[in-house]
Amino acid sequence: MLVNEILSLVEDGEKCPFQALIDIKKMSEEIENAEKRIKEIALKQFDNKTNGNEKTAKLYGYEFSKTSSGRYFYKHYETYVIKESELKTIEERMKIALKQGQNYIDENTGECYPPAEYTPSKISLSMKALK
Predict the structure, then answer these.
(1) Which of 32, 64, 68 is closest to 48 using CA atoms?
(2) Neighbours of 93 (CB within 10 A)
(3) Is residue 42 a contact partner of residue 60, using CB atoms and an 8 Å limit?
(4) Do residues 34 and 45 touch, judged by C-beta distance below 8 A?
(5) CA angle 123, 129, 131 (to 5 degrees)
(6) Under a CB-based contact definition with an 8 Å cutoff, are residues 56 and 65 in contact?
(7) Measured distance CA(5)–CA(28) in Å, rounded
(8) Got the DSSP string for 91-116?
(9) Across all residues in the chain, what is the average pLDDT?
(10) How distant is the alpha carbon of residue 26 from its chain centre?
(11) pLDDT per residue over 17-55, tens digit each?
């Protein structure tokens, strides 16, 4: 069943929206897995399409780009770890202050923490399979 068909059935009251969410979630997971596997195959073939030295290829009306990414790690630097821990402590105390509706005073240091600012985002519906 196509996504638009499912949507039409829900909008027309012919299909339960909760069952539709489950169906679409399953389809999404299948598509995500297929996309990952297809991208792996396409990446292997990319150099053949670009003579091995290009980073982009225009194919079928789309531009495909081959990129490289990585991560930076800081945990090996002791000062970083200490500062990160201090920041987490500040954030936790500011959250407490927000919940209390007033500044939070650290009893050990006397340091005063103002309430964190909270901006609500949208209300959403989540789902997970029952075991």
Answers:
(1) 64
(2) 20
(3) no
(4) no
(5) 140
(6) yes
(7) 15
(8) HHHHHHHHHHTS-EE-TTT--EEPPP
(9) 92
(10) 18
(11) 999 999 999 999 999 999 999 999 999 888 888 777 788
